[in-house]
Each structure stands twice: as structure tokens, then as C-alpha cells.
């Protein structure tokens, strides 16, 4: 079976682009969700580049499972992104109010920055592995 690391990585880049577009349009909840997706796909690409399987949607766990001395502050940033997986999309993700009422420029800007760091980590890893 072909290694699909590059496919996962290019989709991660596209998801980050979607996050930026959503942020520019004022859809901060979607920007935050897209960053969580981008980071997850980039990490799955890294696992595949190492010929490892990766399952699930918890970005912090995907990063920790890579091993190899991941900086603790990067794990903390992925924990921030993980908070955007459910609550950004579902009305019962917060005690009251629609998801869009709970997210603004501060959250989407931070999320885009954090996901960008994960994508750059994956880009470097894939270059080392010959996957990009």
C-alpha cells in the first residue's frame, strides 16, 4: 500500500488556509475548528512518514505518541487546539449560546499560530523522511 503522508500533509496545509479564510470572514469558530483539523492531519502525516499508524482526533496525544523529545510547550499548544474540536461546532458545547458567540479574533489568531507551528514541524519531518 502506498504511503499517504504527503496527502495528509497537503490537506493539513489546506485546512490551515481555510482557517485563515474563516478568520478573515469573521467565522472564528470555524477558524478554530479548522486549525485543530490542520494540526491533526499534519501529525498523522508525520506518523505515516515514520511508517507508523495514527488514529484518533486528540492532537496532543498524536504529538506525544511521536516521541523523540517533543518540546512540552508544543504539547501545551496542541491541548489548546484540542479544545476546538467539539465546542466550536455544537450548540451544547457551551453552557449557553451558539458556538460563534464564544470565539473571536484572539482565539482564532492564537489557534492559527499554533497550528502553523505544528505544520512547520511536520514539514521539517517530512523533508527529513523524503516525503515532501
Question: What's a concise summary of this model?
Answer:
This protein has one domain (5-129): Four Helix Bundle (Hemerythrin (Met), subunit A) (Up-down Bundle), CATH 1.20.120.330. Helix content is 64%, strand content 0%.
Q: Can you tell me the CATH class?
A: Mainly Alpha
Number of domains: 1
CATH H-level name... which superfamily?
Nucleotidyltransferases  domain 2
Mean pLDDT: 94
Structural class: mainly alpha
What is the gyration radius calculated from CA atoms?
A: 15 Å
Largest sheet: none
Low-confidence spans: pLDDT under 50, at least 5 residues? none
- CATH fold annotation: Four Helix Bundle (Hemerythrin (Met), subunit A)
Helix content: 55-70%
Oligomer: single chain
- Along the chain, the helix and strand elements come as HHHHH
Percent strand: under 5%
CATH architecture assignment: Up-down Bundle
Amino acid at each position: 500500500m502506498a504511503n499517504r503522508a504527503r496527502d495528509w500533509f497537503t490537506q493539513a496545509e489546506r485546512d490551515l488556509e481555510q482557517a485563515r479564510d474563516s478568520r478573515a470572514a469573521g467565522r472564528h469558530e470555524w477558524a478554530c475548528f479548522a486549525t485543530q483539523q490542520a494540526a491533526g492531519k499534519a501529525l498523522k502525516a508525520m506518523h505515516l512518514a515514520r511508517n507508523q499508524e495514527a488514529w484518533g482526533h486528540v492532537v496532543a496525544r498524536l504529538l506525544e505518541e511521536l516521541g523523540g523529545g517533543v518540546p512540552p510547550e508544543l504539547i501545551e499548544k496542541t491541548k489548546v487546539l484540542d479544545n476546538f474540536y467539539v465546542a466550536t461546532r455544537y450548540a451544547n458545547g457551551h453552557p449557553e449560546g451558539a458556538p460563534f458567540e464564544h470565539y473571536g479574533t484572539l482565539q482564532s489568531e492564537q489557534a492559527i499560530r499554533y497550528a502553523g507551528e505544528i505544520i512547520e514541524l511536520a514539514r521539517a519531518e517530512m523533508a527529513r523522511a523524503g516525503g515532501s
